[in-house]
Design brief:
Blueprint lengths: L2 H11 L8 H25 L7 H23 L1 H12 L10 H18 L3 H19 L8 E7 L5 H11 L4 E8 L2 E8 L4 H9 L6 E5 L8
Antiparallel strand pairs: 1-3, 1-4, 2-3
Helix pairs in contact: 2-3, 2-5, 2-6, 3-4, 3-5, 5-6, 7-8
Length: about 220
């Protein structure tokens, strides 16, 4: 028997599927479902302050189970494994991921399916715990104050200097982002970081000619 025949025989014997029993399939998929439900809960708790996408969260559980089933099938038969590689190579997903954090959970679910399908449950459990600790620990990391947009409605552009004097007294380095003029008057959009907005808004509203003032804040990314 040549060296080529030995390699061929060893590869074919590794895909005989004798080790893939019904018990193995049930245990693997059961553990995958439990860990996937754990990811479901973590995702629900970590995005409670933002927009919660229930359909995406449900899909995480399904992705983990489907991936584990694919890995089990690839272990049992060489033809299935080669066909699966070819089929996945032509799949194109065009759904845009809006939140970068969703990518974490998406790869987490896929990796759980791969690891559990390979039967390495200890790595799946330890990795899940470490990922959870990292997610919640990094969310507690303090960040800088987010910028706010101050919108002031007035009669003419001569009020800009007085408005900026009040804004500079309440925050550092304000920046005028927009000046708009219309039949009803003028609008100023000023980017600023202010700790006590109530006093600044009251002072600006008291200026002669100011018809309206509003401060728009957000919980998104912070620019420095």
């Amino acid at each position: 028997m040549s060296f080529k025949d030995v390699i061929k025989k060893s590869v074919l014997e590794s895909f005989t599927g004798n080790n893939i029993t019904t018990t193995t399939v049930c245990v693997t998929l059961g553990i995958t479902i439990i860990l996937a439900l754990y990811v479901f809960v973590v995702y629900y708790l970590s995005v409670r302050k933002t927009f919660y996408n229930q359909s995406f969260n449900v899909s995480l559980v399904a992705i983990a189970v489907i991936t584990a089933a694919i890995i089990l099938s690839m272990q049992s038969n060489l033809a299935i494994s080669l066909g699966m590689v070819g089929a996945l190579s032509i799949v194109r997903f065009r759904t845009a991921v809006k939140d970068p954090k969703d990518l974490i959970f998406l790869f987490w679910a896929i990796s759980l399916g791969i690891i559990c399908g390979a039967g390495i449950y200890e790595i799946a459990i330890i990795a899940s715990l470490l990922i959870t600790i990292c997610i919640f620990a990094l969310e507690l990391t303090p960040v800088g104050m987010a910028s706010a947009l101050l919108v002031v409605n007035g009669k003419d552009f001569e009020q800009e200097a007085a408005i900026l004097d009040i804004v500079k007294a309440s925050c550092k380095h304000p920046s005028v982002k927009s000046r708009n003029s219309s039949v009803s008057g003028v609008d100023f959009v000023i980017e600023c970081r202010v700790k006590e907005p109530a006093g600044m808004l009251t002072a600006i509203k008291a200026l002669d000619g100011v018809t309206g003032v509003s401060l728009l804040e957000h919980d998104g990314e912070v620019s420095f």
